[in-house]
């Protein structure tokens, strides 16, 4: 089980969060990871190239997201 807390600022962290974690997980072992939210997503040159190729594809050959996921499951057993 996991729980995610999103805070607008590190200054918003208070004892209520620790109390909530204790109440949720009781005496179970836990891991706490703190990371900075980075909402700036930079695409690599390779990512941009793939996207450029995709937008040049014939729209008649598009598949739905569900079909794409089905193909990935069949191919990689996800």
Polypeptide structure, described:
The structure is a single chain. The chain has a domain at 45-76. The protein has helices at 15-25, 45-55, 65-76. The protein has three helices and no strands. The protein is an all-alpha fold and 78 residues long.
Total count of strands: 0
Helix count equals 3
How much beta, percentage-wise?
Answer: under 5%
- Reading the helices and strands in chain order gives HHH
How much is the radius of gyration in Å?
A: 21 Å
Briefly note the structural class of the backbone.
mainly alpha
Give the overall form: elongated
User: Biggest β-sheet, characterized?
Assistant: none
Return the average pLDDT rounded to an integer: 89
Distance, first to last CA: 20 Å
């Amino acid at each position: 089980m996991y729980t995610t807390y999103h805070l607008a600022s590190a200054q918003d962290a208070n004892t209520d969060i620790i109390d909530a974690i204790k109440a949720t997980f009781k005496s179970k072992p836990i891991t706490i990871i703190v990371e900075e939210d980075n909402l700036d997503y930079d695409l690599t040159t390779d990512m941009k190239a793939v996207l450029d190729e995709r937008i040049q594809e014939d729209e008649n050959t598009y598949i739905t997201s569900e079909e794409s996921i089905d193909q990935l499951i069949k191919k990689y057993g996800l």
